[in-house]
């Protein structure tokens, strides 16, 4: 594991100094942005003069899909980091729920906690094979990649096997039992010395779910007519990548996200959570457990173009709220 982040790996593979590359995953150095204290990895508005911006969305000068067409040797890297819309999700494995629950505990009490104790922020991001923090402090990052806990600190990388919450906390330097953000949804931590169950197949599925969700949400952000667009963040309380879009004053704001499942939904689902009233006579607003709409994974997994179906679901909600 020689690269600090996906962007540094992309630059080494592409090896073209005329291309300003953007990925879906956070990159160093630690951001000084006053509001988010995090980089905006898919943004396009700050390219150097003469550079061609390559993004995973349609908003750049070129897309990663264009680049892969010209350079097929980049296809594996682009697909594994969800930079092209042709990547597909596999069916959900049997071990999903147990792995999801323990990843939730680990993400909330250790990964997000490391960032929170450094700068008061606890939002996470999709990273390949799982999730992680944006860079913070002395160019630090904590991420879960498959069944490993990866800690980046000022240019060095250490990799730890995931055992218990207590051991993970010691590896990162946090107290998992400390509750600084109790007002937000949080999982029950239980016994900190109980072995965590992160099944490799289920972790691969969850990494892909977060990758697909993030890719589609980043494209949703650049939809013409979208206003007051937030950042895509993976919230450790809900364990889902999500973004807020629309005017609250006009009754158009909503949260768009990709949940891996919860107490009310056995399987993963996409959702549009409206902040204001919706027209319940419209069958689109089908969700009974919150104010909005949902699309279950079963309706997505067999689609010929999963990315397109997911994006259409989100844009349909956006169009209804802003009509």
Overview of this protein structure:
With 323 residues, the protein is of the alpha+beta class. The chain folds into 2 domains: 6-80, no CATH class; 91-323, no CATH class. It has 8 helices and 13 strands. The protein has helices spanning 6-14, 64-70, 75-80, 96-119, 165-172, 200-221, 298-301, 306-322; strands at 19-21, 52-55, 62-63, 125-127, 130-132, 140-145, 148-153, 156-161, 233-235, 240-245, 254-259, 269-274, 292-296. The strands form 3 sheets. A 5-stranded antiparallel sheet has the order 4-5-6-7-8. A 5-stranded antiparallel sheet has the order 9-10-11-12-13. A hairpin with a 2-residue loop joins strand 6 (140-145) and strand 7 (148-153). Helix 4 (96-119) packs parallel to helix 5 (165-172), helix 4 packs across helix 6 and helix 6 (200-221) packs across helix 8 (306-322). The mean pLDDT is 95.
Give me the secondary-structure topology.
Layout: H1 6-14, E1 19-21, E2 52-55, E3 62-63, H2 64-70, H3 75-80, H4 96-119, E4 125-127, E5 130-132, E6 140-145, E7 148-153, E8 156-161, H5 165-172, H6 200-221, E9 233-235, E10 240-245, E11 254-259, E12 269-274, E13 292-296, H7 298-301, H8 306-322
């Amino acid at each position: 594991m020689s690269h600090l982040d996906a962007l540094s790996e992309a630059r080494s593979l592409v090896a073209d100094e005329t291309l300003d590359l953007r990925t879906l995953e956070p990159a160093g150095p630690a951001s000084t942005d006053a509001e988010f204290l995090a980089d905006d990895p898919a943004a396009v508005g700050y390219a150097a003069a003469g550079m061609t911006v390559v993004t995973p969305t349609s908003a750049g000068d070129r897309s990663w899909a264009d680049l892969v067409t010209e350079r097929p040797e980049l296809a594996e890297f682009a697909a594994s980091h969800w930079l092209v819309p042709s990547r597909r999700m596999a069916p959900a494995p049997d071990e999903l729920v147990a792995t999801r629950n323990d990843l939730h505990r680990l993400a909330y009490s250790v990964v997000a906690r490391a960032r929170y104790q450094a700068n008061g922020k606890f939002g996470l991001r999709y990273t390949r094979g799982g999730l992680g923090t944006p860079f913070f402090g002395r160019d630090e990052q904590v991420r879960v990649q498959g069944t490993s806990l990866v800690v980046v600190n000022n240019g060095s990388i250490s990799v730890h096997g995931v055992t218990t919450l207590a051991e993970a906390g010691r590896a990162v330097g946090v107290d998992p039992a400390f509750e600084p953000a109790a007002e937000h949804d949080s999982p029950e931590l239980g016994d900190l010395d109980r072995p965590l169950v992160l099944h490799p197949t289920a972790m691969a599925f969850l990494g892909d779910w977060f990758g697909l969700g993030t890719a589609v949400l980043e494209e949703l952000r650049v939809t013409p007519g979208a206003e007051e667009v937030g950042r895509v963040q993976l919230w450790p309380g809900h364990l889902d990548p999500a973004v807020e879009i629309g005017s609250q004053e006009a009754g158009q704001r909503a949260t768009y996200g990709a949940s891996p499942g919860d107490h009310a939904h056995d399987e993963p689902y996409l959702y549009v959570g409206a902040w204001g009233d919706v027209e319940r006579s419209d069958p689109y607003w089908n969700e009974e457990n919150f104010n909005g709409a949902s699309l279950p994974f079963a309706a997505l997994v067999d689609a010929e173009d999963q990315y397109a179906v997911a994006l259409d679901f989100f844009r349909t909600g956006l169009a209804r709220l802003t009509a």
